[in-house]
Amino acid sequence: MKRFTKYILFSITLFYSTAHAQQRIITAGSALTETVCALGDCDKIIASDRTSLYPASIQQLPSIGYRTGINAEGIISLKPTLIIAEKDYVDDAVLQQLAASGIKLVIVDRKLNVNETKKFILQIAIALNREAEGKKLIAKIESELAEANAMLKKTTSSPKVISIYNRGTATVSVAGKNTFGDILAYVGATSAVNDIEGYKPLNTEALITANPDYLLMLSTGLESIGGIDGALKVPGIAQTTAGKKKQIIAIESLKLTNFGPRFGEAVKELVVLLHPELRAK
């Protein structure tokens, strides 16, 4: 009887191990892709969307496209067993087609605050049968945030910051509420423009009036205009305290915008960049 029980347990374990090994995952949304990888299932991803650039290995996989360019036929042809998609990223009609095909769907309603970050990490972890790994990842983020808070207790400055999103000089926008700019609430800084929701075109006069101490940019955005020297050529920036002191800082783009597994890292990095007293010898 004992031998039979051991055999049954072994068979069940083998079944779940084999099923997990055969998982074929497609992700739609860079934060979700990064989370699947952080949980240990990067090798199960067979395709992803165009925004999923981290880890770099994902860029070698087939792309399902971007938002409205994503279609059900292309996804189904790849024979996935699981699709993890960000809410409102893929058209509802496409999701309905995918659901009708019998493919398991996990839809993540991602919002930009740490509690929601922990919530969607656990949601994905459960879907992947990686709940233990999910809890460890959440604990890591909480530990990093605790370290950031400990550093903030040693600071005396309270900088005003404007968060900038740009693609070269053709598109330069201020990132307001419900954007990556919300990270300022965790780093001992305040937004110099509290009346902006979402992304709004940069207004030279308003920028000078707001007079931020720092500008926060995505690393790819700053690189696309030629670094700090290039940023100073954007109308209005050179007239601000941030411009005069060349206090224009950048974080790796997806780390800053994803509010995902590396959120705690981003917060710690920003705390040091925004509070020079922490760097004083």
Automatic annotation (TrEMBL):
One Pfam entry name: Peripla_BP_2
Listed InterPro entries: ABC_Transporter_SBP (IPR050902), ABC_transptr_periplasmic_BD (IPR002491)
Keywords recorded for this protein, A-Z: Signal
Keyword Acyltransferase: no
Superkingdom assignment: Bacteria
Leader sequence segment: 1-21
Domain Fe/B12 periplasmic-binding: 24-278
SUPFAM superfamilies with a match to the protein in the record: Helical backbone' metal receptor (SSF53807)
Protein name: Iron complex transport system substrate-binding protein
Organism: Ohtaekwangia koreensis
Taxonomic classification: Bacteria, Pseudomonadati, Bacteroidota, Cytophagia, Cytophagales
